[in-house]
Amino acid sequence: MVTESSALAGSASEPSALAGPAPETTPVRRLLPVIAPALTVGVVCALVLLGIDLLAERLQGVLWETLPDALSVGRYSALWVIVMLTASGLVAGLLIRAVPGHAGPDPATTGLVDPPLPPVAVPGLLLVTVLTLAGGISLGPENPITAVNVALAFWLGRRFLPGTPAELWLPLAAAGTIGALFGTPVAAALILTETLASRAGGGPGALWDRLFGPLAAGAAGALTMTLLARPSFDLSLPAYTHPHWGDLLSSAVVALAGAALGLLAVYAFPYTHRFFVALKHPVLALTAGGLLLGLLGALGGHLTLFKGLDEVKELAADPSGWSAGQFAVMAVVKTAALLIAASCGFRGGRIFPAVFVGVALGLCAHALVPSVPMALAVSCGVLGILLAITRQGWLSLFTAAVLVGDVAVLPVLCVASLPAWLLVTGRPQMQLHEDGTPLR
């Protein structure tokens, strides 16, 4: 995802034999010029995310409130859910077929942070992303918005600051977007740590030197989003006071259940993708996918639609309003919806829908065994499903902890992550090679 040359060190010229070795640049002199581009990229990334979110919310209001009210149809009736998701698939397929660049590559072959897209693909990808978010598709904004911001930062950075190394812009844009998405630069630092830690070389402080620019971009993106929109991931669940011996077993069981459910989707992913590819046309594939998503939405209810962030707050606000069986149905339906949406060609991310699955699974565990603390059950369910879907350990731990807003849960989460990681590591990933085979 990031090339071997340092994104922050610049591109020093080769010293000549007569001139002797060039004087070594101090870390401070290397890092100071990064601050302004990093802060700028972070702010722009947050503004792009905020703009797309606002457009999607406006369109969602039209599609799910204004239109059904005008037609005297129930807003979330089974009929309207099936019609809207099928229509979303049809329109998305037509857009992908028609727009320049076809809204980027097949999303089944892409990850969260990938090489920059050509600029011609950016407008189409933004259009399809807005439609995906507004139409009730079980995907989040993180993958396409990160791809758009990386492409814009790379293109504009190389155009207006041609002397900067090309490798600088990808981590800055990725960090700025992730910081804006999660409302904190820590998420960006943790995720990029996993990317940068694989690089060889460097002495004491080398990793933080590499993270200096991305951390600044992540902070700028997070602060911009917080000041303008005040996002919150805290589900306001009852506080987890302190660990008990029994919590070690229950946390591991819930995390393993989440990881197992996620792995079912991961193993099914190549087969569902192959089915939609066999239709040989994006319009047919996305229309068929939209119809299946509509049927799943009618089965699971309106809470299983959309990216899932607002819906998990509704679940957490009244956890006694649903039975364990209903929570289980929602978790399975949302997993199936995520699988289909990611397979048929909709542009979107998988983190937020997976969070919904984990929350529903955790609430199901608490409903079945009330002695399991609700905050612990929810955070472990999210931890397990995210480990399977994203294969990002830091991201999974961070997201699970942020949702319950309680540091007391962290030691138990770390213990629960061990058996869950042993289950998922070395398994296929929820991402495919160009030939349709899964990454490992």
TrEMBL record:
Keyword set, alphabetical order: Membrane, Transmembrane, Transmembrane helix
Compartment(s) where it occurs, according to its Swiss-Prot or TrEMBL record: Membrane
Record region (Disordered): 1-23
Pfam assignment, any one: Voltage_CLC
Signal peptide interval: none
Transmembrane stretches, start-end: 34-56, 77-100, 168-191, 211-229, 249-271, 283-305, 325-344, 351-368, 374-390, 397-422
Membrane topology, as annotated: Multi-pass membrane protein
PANTHER family listed in its UniProt record: CHLORIDE CHANNEL PROTEIN CLC-E, ION-TRANSPORT PROTEIN YFEO-RELATED
NCBIfam families, per database record: PRK03655.1
Protein name (Swiss-Prot/TrEMBL): Ion-transport protein
Organism of provenance: Streptomyces gelaticus
Organismal lineage: Bacteria, Bacillati, Actinomycetota, Actinomycetes, Kitasatosporales
